[in-house]
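S1.2 Input.
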Amino acid sequence: MITELELERTAAALDRAFREPETTDWTTVERLRLHADLLDRLAAAQRHWSGPVSRRAELVRDSAERMADELTNVTSSIDLDLPHQATTRR
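S1.3 Output.
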């Protein structure tokens, strides 16, 4: 079984590998989701579903979903504006 120290070291390595991206796009959302999934698997390997690694995964997942919501709102507002702009330009 993996020790707490090994668990934290592995989680820290994942955090470094998936450090905060500089862009906001769908690829970044998927990277954040993958990061959260890997942290979840790490917590499950130790059977610490309510431990610090699991909470870290939840924070990363929340960040991904907030970013996805922002991107969806931007996309939907663009979609809503385009038909209106097309009719006013005629």
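S1.4 Remarks. The longest helix spans residues 52-88.
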